[in-house]
Amino acid sequence: MAERFLDIPVDPVDSKGALDAARVAVAGERPPLLVIAINPEKVMKAQSDVELRNFIEHAGLRIADGVGIVLASRLRGGRVRNRVTGVDLMLQLVAEAAKQGWRVFLLGARPEVNEAAAAELLRRFPSLVLAGRRDGYFSPDDAEHIASEIAATGADLLFVALGSPAQERFLLQWGDRTGTKVRMGVGGSFDVLAGRVPRAPAAMRRAGLEWLYRLYREPWRLRRMLVLPVFLVRAYLHRQDRAGAAR
User: For a FRET experiment, which of 22, 144, 235, 240 has its CA 20 to 30 Å from that of 216?
Assistant: First the structure.
């Protein structure tokens, strides 16, 4: 059962649980799996963005992509104990796809970034079946046609890197038309794979300090990251208020 942060659901699942859910979906033993990565910024944005909130509610798997979600859960004795980053889950899903013969489609980012990301995935996973790929430069009027093109490739997994909320909007409106079994918005993950955006050292990632590395590399993110203390306070007080109302 999902744990809610300011009424936004996050599933208390680890990487293994997420992979298991994907395997079941690809096998056709459950409806197609819609995956979204949740961080404090997205929770706060969903307070006023009805479309984003609706997408989160419809998603079959809401992973805790952000140390702030884990911290908030711990502060109030919740059940979210594992951070599952979007880029890491994507790589794990692609690794499983290469092993199982699942077909993968990459949608989004600039043309050169999309191409480089695909090349890197094929380098890491030589047996990967890349059903197709397309950059993210298209008009909303073309979205339905693109979804049909994806369906024609027979792709099982769809990774969409259009940024939020564009990727959520595409998946919510046209995800079913793609015929894919697992659909996931991956934000800037293609840029990471293409080598355009470096990741924090593994030790910092394990310690939950990837945000600090990103701030060091991109100081302009400071204003966006100031949402974290606001989120922690509001999430804690909101839980307290609900607990008091229940008594």
Answer: 235
